[in-house]
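It is worth pausing here to work through a concrete case rather than discussing structure prediction in the abstract. The textbook approach is simple: state the sequence, then state the predicted structure, then interpret. We follow exactly that order.
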Amino acid sequence: MSISASQVKELREKSGAGMMDCKKALQESNGDMEAAIDWLRAKGIAKAGKKSGRTAAEGLVGVAAHRSKAVAVEINSETDFVARNDAFQDLVRGVAAVALDTDGAIDAVAASTYPATGKTVADTITDAVATIGENMHLRRVAVLSVDEGVMATYVHNAVADGLGKLGVLVALQSSGNEDALKAIGKQIAMHVAATNPLAVTPDDVDAEIADRERAIFTEQARESGKPDNIIEKMVEGRMRKFFEEVALISQSFVINPDQTIEAALKQAEADAGAPITVAGFVRFQLGEGVEREESDFAAEVAAAANA
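Step two, the predicted structure:
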């Protein structure tokens, strides 16, 4: 039978389930709203959907690598308690493994088959929401690869192998000795975790960010009352310092602050026997950029009492 958009909208509002799930439920129930809700509940979809409005800013970052390709994924949950759950950890680890066979687009990962269930990653996560009882979602994915070289990974304060709240990937392009590349790659990944650089080189820094800094420095310099030619030199000096602080290769190496990352790479080239280039990096910190709901215990009790 034909299902109208208004019917789908009504069921979405009542159940909190997704549009396609609502449409399928109505089709399976011949348009009967209450039967469609029961169908969704039986599938665990309504339960999952109703939780979708709750803030999920906890969870885990997972990293995985295979040969010249590596991936980082972030799957969020509502509480840190769930992040310590073995089933949730297996889910994050499994999604990272699936993502290795994709181009890193989140839609591609969500639509990929999750081997353990035979369902898509998206449906597997939905099932996990219904089983575990918390809102959770695949927030982001990043993939890095090199034609020749190694992929280094690092998880800070890992809760399990490849899982934690801060994960880093570093891509090193080189034909050099693999063990030497892995050693320097791991150290640079640890450095990225500690310093959170904006880009690999000064030229890679986002133009908008650089322009904004330049405008601020210019305004500050003008307050000195110095002539324009002096102001220009002051601004250029401050911009050089800015790029040194935010571009990976010009940062002081946290493992040896007397060296820059660029100098450390040059030194590592002697052991590797070939030039080394940082082709890219990814740094995922759990929940960064997620607006968390603030509440207090008294308010939660009052809300529960009025439910």
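Step three, interpretation. The longest strand covers residues 136-145. Residues 48-53 have pLDDT under 50 and may be disordered.
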